[in-house]
Write a structure and sequence with these properties.
This protein is an alpha+beta fold and 470 residues long. It contains 4 helices and 22 strands. Strands 1, 16, 17, 18, 21 and 22 form a 6-stranded mixed sheet that branches. It has a 6-stranded antiparallel beta barrel with strand order 3-10-13-12-11-14.
């Protein structure tokens, strides 16, 4: 009969329960031990006997051998596969260490035989000239204006110069006086020549008479002296005529000069063209040689100046075809030709000045326009072409990673030509058929052994195999 336990806290109840259970388990163990001891004593006192296993030595050795065999088999079954796996791992690691790095290579090819070069150019008139006044005066009237097309010799303006007109009239009067004086001198010369001839005949007659003694010597000397005087007078008249003729010539030259200046009062066009500038209006004062009246340009054929870089200067030659495009004439292309080159580079910009002549029959092109000039040329020996990412720039210069036939890397120095952005022309250092690494990276080491893989098998249209276009 259980007695009622007093109320205790929860922790004390749990401890009491656990202690009771342990005591009960202890009592059960003691009872089992006593029962086991009793069974052993009963067998010794004649109770039921228990037969114990007593193996023979052969059995024991068999059991030991079997256990040893099982241990060996178990050991081999676990150790051998482990060793194989370890050997395989080591072998793979060695193969990875000894394996050649695989790199992609491209074959170096030639650039396009047609080299296209597009450069900016300035369009100018083939002939352009300022028209200045050649005489002082006032602009009386203007007969041409900006944009007018004029012909050679066409009057453009008229200048009024009263002082020049007075000078012309004075020169004409002086010429008339000089000619009158010359005519008078000629008349005097004719008269003097007649007088000298009469004096000569008289002197000869008196000389013969004096030789026969018919007249006195004094009278003969008198007529001889008259003849000598007439001869000297005739010589003086000849010199006066020569001087007067010189005077007439000088007056005529002065008159011709003034008349020529008078002809400049009408300003004329020097050649066929268009008036691009008109500087004065009627009534303006004009000074000879200083006042600009008009500017005329010949636009039937225009010339365009282009500065060609040194790298392309050798591909431009006179007679070469050139094509022009201007931004405001969309869809139109004008064909011209290279007229001449400077045959020398500008030392400041290292460019070659090229002059291109372009026919402009319809007047679509205007002087002063900005144009893009496309210079095309055929190259007999095009340079090599490589991808731009293959270029290696270092302190030693520019080079590429070249893969030799023995699959070793060689840093080959090159000379760069024209730059197309994603491609480069190589003017020296490579030959057609060389294999280069397009993206060298860490494999760009001299003498490194590699396993090349051609990109032509993956991408037949690699940029290095495509001709450049502009």
């Amino acid at each position: 009969m259980r007695h009622a336990e007093p109320d205790v806290p929860g922790s004390e109840i749990d401890a009491a329960t656990t202690e009771e259970r342990l005591r009960r388990e202890n009592r059960d163990l003691k009872r089992q031990i006593e029962e086991l001891k009793g069974s052993l004593h009963g067998s010794s006192r004649g109770g039921p006997s228990v037969k114990l296993w007593n193996p023979s030595p052969v059995t024991i050795w068999f059991i030991v051998f079997s256990a040893a065999v099982l241990l060996v088999v178990a050991f081999l079954a676990g150790y051998i596969p482990l060793q194989k796996r370890r050997a395989l791992i080591v072998s793979e690691a060695q193969q990875q260490e000894e394996a050649l790095p695989r790199v992609e290579v491209v074959e170096v090819g030639r650039s396009s035989r047609t080299s296209e070069l597009e450069l900016p150019g300035n369009i100018q008139a083939i002939t352009e000239a300022p028209i200045l006044a050649r005489a002082d005066g006032y602009l009386q009237r203007r007969m041409a204006d900006i944009g007018d097309r004029v012909r050679s010799g066409q009057p453009l303006a008229e200048i009024e110069a009263p002082e020049l007109d007075d000078q012309v009239r004075q020169a004409k009067a002086n010429l008339q006086q000089a000619r009158a004086a010359l005519d008078e001198a000629l008349a005097n010369y004719t008269q003097g020549k007649s007088n000298m001839e009469f004096a000569r005949v008289t002197a000869e007659r008196w000389s013969r008479l004096a030789a026969r003694g018919a007249v006195s010597k004094q009278e003969n000397d008198q007529y001889q002296a008259q003849y000598q005087a007439q001869a000297a007078n005739l010589q003086a008249l000849e010199k006066a005529i020569a001087a007067q003729r010189s005077t007439v010539s000088a007056v005529e030259a002065n008159l011709a000069r003034l008349e020529k200046l008078q002809g400049y009062l009408v300003v004329k066009a020097p050649f066929d063209g268009v008036i691009t500038l008109r500087n004065l209006d009627a009534g303006a004062l004009v000074n000879a040689g200083n006042t600009l009246l008009f500017r005329i340009a010949q636009t039937g054929t225009l010339r365009t100046y282009v500065n060609v870089p040194q790298a392309n200067a050798g591909s431009v030659r006179p007679g070469q075809t050139a094509r022009l495009r201007v931004s405001n004439l969309i869809g139109r292309e004008f064909t011209g030709a290279v007229a001449r080159t400077a045959n020398a580079l500008d030392p400041n910009s290292r460019t070659l000045l090229v002059e291109v002549h372009v026919p402009n029959a319809d007047g679509a092109l205007l002087p002063g326009m900005y144009a893009l000039v496309d210079l095309s040329s055929n190259r007999t020996n095009p340079p090599m072409l490589i991808p731009s990412e293959a270029l290696i720039v270092s302190a030693d210069g520019t080079s590429v990673a070249l893969v030799r036939p023995d699959h070793t890397v060689h840093l080959q120095k090159i000379q760069i030509g024209r730059d197309y952005g994603d491609r480069l022309e190589v003017s020296g250092g490579l030959k057609e058929g060389d294999m280069i690494i397009p993206n060298p990276g860490d494999v760009a080491r001299e003498g490194l052994k590699v396993d090349p893989v051609s990109l032509a098998q993956k991408a037949p249209q690699h940029p290095a195999l495509t001709a450049p276009r502009n």
